[in-house]
Write a structure and sequence with these properties.
Elements: H1 2-12, E1 19-23, H2 29-32, E2 50-57, E3 61-62, E4 68-69, H3 70-82, E5 89-96, H4 104-116
Parallel strand pairs: 1-2, 2-5
Antiparallel strand pairs: 3-4
Length: 122
Amino acid sequence: MGGLLATEILFEKPALFDKYIIISPSLWWDNGSLLTRDAEILKADFHSPLQVYIGVGKEGLTPGEIPHVSEVDANLLAEKIKNTKSKTVSVYFDYLPQEDHATVSHQAVFNAFRILYPAKSN
């Protein structure tokens, strides 16, 4: 549930961090309510620099009253953030079809660090 928690913090208290790594978020929780929130980072007056990495594997159907597909929900989250009116928020969506919920973490964390903390050239 770490990806869900990271998404909740991003939407509710975005200034706590300037980079977010969200892996395999369980966005199905509470019938997908996070995907319907109007977060501060989506508004034109949000000026803090913010980078968000979202990584998900091929995870399929999730539990809940309303059927959700994890990789679709993660993509919807990325699209929601991409459509922000803020000029300081960027999002990177990483679909890893060779991984699933149990195996996606290692590769996604590696990819996130490469994207969010690129090597500095001398």
